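From the shared-data thread, chain only:
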Amino acid sequence: MFKLLKYADKYKFYAFISPLLMIGEVIFELLIPQVMADIVETIRLTETTDPAIQQQAINTIFILGAKMLGLAVCSLLCGASAAIVASVAGMGFGSTLRGALVSRVQTFSFSNIDRFSTASLITRMTTDVNTVQNTFLMLIRGIFRAPIMLISALVICISKSKQVSSVFAVSLPIIVIVLAIAGPVAIKRFRAMLKMFDGFNASIQENLTNIRVVKTFVRTDYEKKKFKKANDELMGAALHAEKLIILGEPALMLIMSLTILAVVIIATKAIAEETLVVGEFTAIFTYIMQIIMSFLFTIVMVAQLFMSEASAKRIGEVLNEEADITDPENADTNVNDGSIEFKNVSFAYGKGKNILKNVSFKIESGEMVGIMGATGSSKSSLVQLIPRLYDTNEGDVFVGGKNVKSYHLQSLRDAVSMVLQKNVLFSGTIADNLRWGDENATDEEIREACAVADADSFVMSFPDGYNTDLGQGGVNVSGGQKQRLCIARAILKKPKILILDDSTSAVDTATDARIRAGLRKSIPDTTKIIIAQRVSSVSDCDKIIILDNGEINDIGTHEELLERNEIYKDIYTAQQKGSGDFDEQGGEL
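Structure, as tokens:
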């Protein structure tokens, strides 16, 4: 928790001022009971028969009352000001911490992200940050107030009556022992609860993201049961964690109530024995209530620290995660061309077995290359090594004649455009989405890129054209339209290497052919890599790489592979013997 306080540096002035104001509030509150005691003792003087003494007593009461009111107003102003200043510091700390988490995640490689689920990262940036933020806010408001109030009021009580104050010698140690025993147990339980939060958020995210699939397969009841299970597990973990607090609060209140009862009994006996006056007892009782409230607040702070410790650790795991892929010293920022070479490359996800094994090939700049292979042959994994989304376990990848590990990451990735298997569009207009490729692209450049991707005609068919709002995730365009927009976005980047990872699977073969022709004509110097399942999508490529179980099976042209490669011939024959290609009629998914 305290290691995260560096993210409050921008607000340290507010964090420093708030406790000072709280100390002022404590001082004024500590003065009030003594004034109250003086008023009680002065009231007794009004019972005398001497008119002069009575009038003097009444005047004194008014003066003391005004003094007490002034102290109360000053205490209120200090407390209110401290609360406002603390809120600025607390909210600022939370905002800075969330920003640091987002910035940190943006530096992660794919392998770093694989270690955290999306749902877990969301929980850490929301629930965990809110918990830590609230704890920080409580600390700066009470870190001085509660202890100072507790110690000062206790010292004053002891100075006024050691006999009455002796009660705390029994009650306070009991509470401290209980907290010392319950604290570690509470931390462990809250960590388990927050882990359940990850699963709960994952269930919600998956359900809402895939709501169309759920409805299509009429799986609403199943999703409700799955959600109920996650919700019940979270509730059970929360109850298990909160049980200590649920049971602890009444127990603490019982101890405090017994403490007050003991104080009243002892004080009553002292008053009867005339070793304590009523006015002093009034002040002592007020101080005792301040001691009790301060101690209760301290307990709440400790409980909040137990809760936030689990959250702080989870936040720290993200902030302390070292990016697997970083810029080298004296990084190269110039990618000469789009040539690619793999030399004896092997790769595995995490600590698993290699899924790419001793892969070697070379692609000249400007070539159009197809990659084919059975599902699971690691085609996507292969191309993700080019922009260093992952790093090789063995061997080297070269782009523009230089090892990819020698480049500045941004320079390398600026030179490579990828259209992934999952086509992702963001909320906003079509133009907004396309400008992810080039934020400064003109309207004319956008239309040219869409023309190459065979997207301009359908975009212009919308009433608002390129200003059409796509909605979240591009829900109001078809799969084929989404693919073409993603291709246009990649073209706008003006890359030296363009990778299409099964990115024309939802368009017909005629459209696919027009896109490939457009790519050859419009960006002849750009190296184009096409991963596809259809032979027709790669048949006109300069060469085709056949992957089999993570190894290079063969490399050649369409004609050469048809002549000598059994895998390619089997794929070609199976597709030729099909019932016909729906694409021939210009269809689109």
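The beta strands are 340-347, 356-363, 368-373, 394-399, 402-403, 416-419, 497-501, 527-531, 543-548, 551-556.
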